[in-house]
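Sequence in, structure out. Go.
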Amino acid sequence: MTRAYVGLGANLGDRERTLREAVAALGAEEGIAVVAVSALRETEPVGVGEQPLFLNGAAALETTLEAPELLERLLAVEQRFGRVRVPGEHGPRTLDLDLLLYGEEETEEPGLAVPHPRLHERRFVLEPLVELDPGLVVPGRGTVESLLRGLH
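Output:
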Protein backbone atom coordinates (compact mmCIF):
# COMPACT_ATOMS: atom_id res chain seq x y z
CA MET A 1 0.00 0.00 0.00
CA THR A 2 1.18 3.47 -0.87
CA ARG A 3 -0.01 6.70 0.77
CA ALA A 4 -0.94 9.25 -1.87
CA TYR A 5 -2.30 12.77 -1.52
CA VAL A 6 -4.79 14.32 -3.92
CA GLY A 7 -5.66 17.99 -4.24
CA LEU A 8 -9.39 18.72 -4.48
CA GLY A 9 -10.82 21.77 -6.20
CA ALA A 10 -13.98 23.10 -7.85
CA ASN A 11 -15.32 26.54 -8.75
CA LEU A 12 -18.42 25.76 -10.78
CA GLY A 13 -21.78 24.37 -9.66
CA ASP A 14 -22.39 23.01 -6.16
CA ARG A 15 -18.70 22.91 -5.25
CA GLU A 16 -18.95 21.25 -1.84
CA ARG A 17 -21.34 18.56 -3.02
CA THR A 18 -19.16 17.84 -6.06
CA LEU A 19 -16.01 17.52 -3.95
CA ARG A 20 -17.68 15.27 -1.37
CA GLU A 21 -19.19 13.06 -4.08
CA ALA A 22 -15.86 12.90 -5.93
CA VAL A 23 -14.10 11.74 -2.74
CA ALA A 24 -16.79 9.09 -2.29
CA ALA A 25 -16.32 8.02 -5.93
CA LEU A 26 -12.57 7.68 -5.36
CA GLY A 27 -13.16 5.58 -2.26
CA ALA A 28 -15.45 3.29 -4.26
CA GLU A 29 -12.66 2.56 -6.78
CA GLU A 30 -10.94 -0.80 -6.45
CA GLY A 31 -7.45 -0.37 -4.99
CA ILE A 32 -8.19 3.01 -3.37
CA ALA A 33 -9.14 3.71 0.24
CA VAL A 34 -9.79 7.27 1.41
CA VAL A 35 -7.97 7.65 4.74
CA ALA A 36 -8.63 11.33 5.54
CA VAL A 37 -10.05 14.48 3.98
CA SER A 38 -9.09 18.00 5.01
CA ALA A 39 -11.52 20.79 5.66
CA LEU A 40 -12.62 22.57 2.51
CA ARG A 41 -11.65 26.22 2.15
CA GLU A 42 -12.67 28.98 -0.22
CA THR A 43 -9.74 30.37 -2.20
CA GLU A 44 -9.00 32.93 -4.88
CA PRO A 45 -8.47 31.47 -8.37
CA VAL A 46 -4.90 31.20 -9.64
CA GLY A 47 -4.92 31.61 -13.39
CA VAL A 48 -6.19 33.69 -16.21
CA GLY A 49 -9.26 35.90 -16.24
CA GLU A 50 -12.22 36.47 -13.99
CA GLN A 51 -13.72 33.34 -12.49
CA PRO A 52 -15.61 32.24 -9.37
CA LEU A 53 -13.90 31.42 -6.07
CA PHE A 54 -12.61 27.89 -5.63
CA LEU A 55 -13.36 25.45 -2.88
CA ASN A 56 -10.15 23.51 -2.18
CA GLY A 57 -8.97 20.71 0.06
CA ALA A 58 -6.93 17.53 0.00
CA ALA A 59 -7.47 13.83 0.56
CA ALA A 60 -5.08 11.19 1.84
CA LEU A 61 -5.45 7.84 0.08
CA GLU A 62 -4.03 4.37 0.61
CA THR A 63 -3.68 2.66 -2.73
CA THR A 64 -2.40 -0.52 -4.34
CA LEU A 65 -2.37 1.23 -7.72
CA GLU A 66 0.82 2.50 -9.33
CA ALA A 67 1.00 6.29 -9.82
CA PRO A 68 0.05 6.29 -13.56
CA GLU A 69 -2.98 4.10 -12.89
CA LEU A 70 -4.05 6.24 -9.93
CA LEU A 71 -3.80 9.34 -12.13
CA GLU A 72 -5.99 7.62 -14.76
CA ARG A 73 -8.63 6.97 -12.08
CA LEU A 74 -8.49 10.61 -10.93
CA LEU A 75 -9.00 11.82 -14.50
CA ALA A 76 -11.87 9.36 -15.02
CA VAL A 77 -13.64 10.65 -11.89
CA GLU A 78 -13.14 14.23 -13.11
CA GLN A 79 -14.79 13.32 -16.42
CA ARG A 80 -17.75 11.71 -14.62
CA PHE A 81 -18.31 15.07 -12.91
CA GLY A 82 -18.25 16.99 -16.20
CA ARG A 83 -14.62 18.12 -16.29
CA VAL A 84 -13.15 18.68 -19.73
CA ARG A 85 -9.38 19.15 -19.53
CA VAL A 86 -7.80 21.53 -22.01
CA PRO A 87 -3.98 21.48 -21.92
CA GLY A 88 -2.54 24.73 -20.60
CA GLU A 89 -5.95 26.13 -19.62
CA HIS A 90 -6.53 27.31 -16.06
CA GLY A 91 -10.15 28.37 -16.35
CA PRO A 92 -13.21 27.52 -14.26
CA ARG A 93 -13.86 23.84 -13.63
CA THR A 94 -16.47 21.57 -12.12
CA LEU A 95 -13.79 19.37 -10.53
CA ASP A 96 -10.03 19.30 -10.25
CA LEU A 97 -8.26 16.24 -8.81
CA ASP A 98 -4.49 16.63 -8.75
CA LEU A 99 -2.09 13.88 -7.76
CA LEU A 100 0.12 15.83 -5.36
CA LEU A 101 2.25 13.12 -3.76
CA TYR A 102 2.64 9.40 -4.29
CA GLY A 103 4.58 7.91 -1.39
CA GLU A 104 8.15 9.16 -1.55
CA GLU A 105 8.31 8.80 -5.33
CA GLU A 106 9.67 11.45 -7.64
CA THR A 107 8.45 10.95 -11.21
CA GLU A 108 8.66 13.18 -14.26
CA GLU A 109 7.15 11.72 -17.40
CA PRO A 110 4.70 13.00 -20.01
CA GLY A 111 1.39 13.68 -18.27
CA LEU A 112 2.64 12.74 -14.78
CA ALA A 113 4.83 14.77 -12.45
CA VAL A 114 5.05 13.70 -8.80
CA PRO A 115 5.40 15.57 -6.53
CA HIS A 116 3.09 18.04 -8.24
CA PRO A 117 5.44 20.66 -9.76
CA ARG A 118 3.79 23.71 -8.14
CA LEU A 119 2.70 22.14 -4.86
CA HIS A 120 5.37 24.01 -2.85
CA GLU A 121 4.20 27.41 -4.20
CA ARG A 122 0.50 27.11 -3.44
CA ARG A 123 -1.04 27.97 -0.09
CA PHE A 124 -4.37 26.40 -1.16
CA VAL A 125 -2.54 23.06 -1.52
CA LEU A 126 -0.15 23.31 1.43
CA GLU A 127 -2.74 24.33 4.05
CA PRO A 128 -4.89 21.20 3.58
CA LEU A 129 -1.77 18.99 3.51
CA VAL A 130 -0.52 20.53 6.77
CA GLU A 131 -3.94 19.83 8.28
CA LEU A 132 -3.68 16.16 7.24
CA ASP A 133 -0.02 15.67 8.22
CA PRO A 134 2.23 18.61 9.22
CA GLY A 135 5.35 16.42 9.01
CA LEU A 136 4.56 15.19 5.51
CA VAL A 137 7.71 15.44 3.39
CA VAL A 138 7.66 16.68 -0.17
CA PRO A 139 10.63 14.86 -1.76
CA GLY A 140 13.44 17.30 -2.48
CA ARG A 141 11.64 20.23 -0.79
CA GLY A 142 11.06 19.52 2.94
CA THR A 143 7.97 19.26 5.10
CA VAL A 144 4.67 20.79 4.04
CA GLU A 145 4.69 22.75 7.30
CA SER A 146 8.07 24.38 6.52
CA LEU A 147 7.02 25.03 2.91
CA LEU A 148 3.85 26.77 4.11
CA ARG A 149 5.82 28.91 6.59
CA GLY A 150 8.08 29.95 3.71
CA LEU A 151 5.23 31.41 1.63
CA HIS A 152 4.60 35.15 1.77
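Check: Residues 15-28 form the longest helix (14 residues). The chain is about 30% helix and 30% strand.
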